[in-house]
Amino acid sequence: MHFIKTIGATLIVCAALLSGCATIQPLRFHSSIDSLAQADANIKKRYVLMPGGKKEEVGDLQFQEFAAYIDKALTANGFVKVNTFQGADVVIFLSYAIGDPQTYQHTYSLPTWGQTGVSSANTYGTVSSYGSTVTNSGVTTYTPTYGVTGSTTQIATDTNYTRFLFLEAYDAATYAKEKKMNQVWKTSVVSIGSSNDLRLVVPYMVTAMKPYLATNTGHKIEVDVLVDDPAVQLLRGGQSSVTK
Are strands 133-171 and 183-193 parallel, antiparallel or unpaired? Predict the structure, then answer.
């Protein structure tokens, strides 16, 4: 009987845990998009893509990988890549970075499970008599109930990284004639999460920013991209991703 009671309690706990798991949100990457643009930015479609940071160079393999993502996103928005400054409407500078790790603690509660009471009691036994004496012998079986009996406070430590991706487009003709940097549009993406692997995160950031390239968002736009988003897989050329 005790064995049966134990199994019943275990099943109740497992069912509650499974119910809680059903509410867990799918894994996703969150990004904040901010984009500014001149009124005629969208008509300047021919571009040259160049490194924008001090650490990036055209021949750098990581820059080439990220630039390929940007090229796909720009092409999907009607842009045309050219090989020379003379044939370009805009020169687009790509830069990216990752911040130092930020570690913080937070508390959360976990329910504790146990017996909360007794739902019923049944007595089984026999009555015997000997002369004028009557004897009653029996066993009472109790059916317990189980549920949340309280909670415990847990402390967790998390480490997050801030990831940055910037695109800045400048008018090619103005620079060629006047040597001035006339900015046509710029789009920035900031993403905070547990991964410090830019190669993992950048495709999600590019996917998030794609609809807002060369536009004026008017304010920051918050975008979530699911881990298994088909747009990311298309951007990566069918490569699978691994989350951390």
Answer: antiparallel
Residue 218 parent element (H or E): none
Say how many CA atoms lie within 13 Å of 84 toward its Cβ.
Answer: 2
Cβ neighbours for 81, distance < 8 A, ≥ 6 positions apart:
46, 47, 48, 49, 71, 74, 75
- Structural domain containing residue 185: 28-106+157-235
Q: How far is CA 99 from the centre of its chain?
A: 18
Q: What's the total number of domains in the chain?
A: 1
d(CA 205, CA 98): 13
Which two tokens mark 210?
């794609």
Which regions in the chain score pLDDT beneath 70? 1-25, 119, 121-139, 238-244
Domain-embedded: residue 47 = yes
Amino acid sitting at position 187: T
Q: Domain of 189: which CATH number?
A: 3.30.160
According to DSSP, residue 39 is labeled T
The answer to whether the predicted template modeling score (pTM) of the entire model surpasses 0.85 is no
